Amino acid sequence: MTFEEVYNEHFSYIYNIVYARVLNRTEAEDLVSDVFFKAMDKFSGFDPKKASVKTWLCTIARNRLIDYYRSSARTRSVPMADDDMKDFPVEDDYSVEQDDINKEAHRILSLLSDEERELINMRYFMDLKNPEIAEKLGISSKAVCERYRRLLKKCEDLTDRNTLRELLT
């Protein structure tokens, strides 16, 4: 597999992971560029016996996000009201304005803490199981389960159940 194939196959996936954390298109694009530059630089040393390409890229993305938040005091994105978003043109597949589900997902994610978005990222975008999440966070699987249960309840409180079900599938 060439790096170009890796990039083409996994770009959208990595972009979505990063965007779900930073909730800012420009920042997400910059961070994803960094992720793929690092991956390209290290591609010759990639060992498919250790991890899949997807897992490898997710690890690079997660580490880049950690560096991003550590590098300076970052402020959380301020949730935008629908009126603030109406003037944003729909330019491509990554636009928040693409459909109502994307707008609702953005709204909910903007109301969550960075830690809560990270848990959603690991669970739904990176497809990690509780023991894997527990290992990355340095907590027990039971604690992951409880955090996840509270997070889902919070998301349910922020929207109706049908919309939440659509967002998570």
Description:
The chain is mostly helical. It contains nine helices and no strands. Helix 1 (3-22) packs across helix 3 and helix 1 (3-22) runs antiparallel to helix 6. The longest helix is centred in the first third of the chain and has 20 residues, at 3-22. It is globular, with a radius of gyration of 17 Å.
Give a short synopsis of this structure.
By secondary structure, this protein is mostly helical.
What characteristics describe this protein?
single chain, 169 residues, mainly alpha, Rna Polymerase Sigma Factor, Chain: A, Arc Repressor Mutant, subunit A, 70% helix, 0% strand
Q: What's the total count of β strands?
A: 0
How many strands, which pairing sense, and closed or not: the largest β-sheet? Answer: none
Cα distance, first to last residue?
29 Å
Task: Calculate the mean pLDDT score and round it.
Answer: 79
- The helical percent reads 55-70%
Structural class: mainly alpha
Instruction: Kindly report the name of the CATH homologous superfamily of the largest domain.
Output: RNA polymerase sigma factor, region 2, helix turn helix motif
CATH topology call of the largest domain: Rna Polymerase Sigma Factor, Chain: A
- Name the poorly predicted regions: 75-92
Query: What's the CATH class of the largest domain, please?
Result: Mainly Alpha
Quaternary status: single chain
The number of helical elements comes to 9
Tally of structural domains: 2
Instruction: Provide the succession of SSEs.
Output: HHHHHHHHH
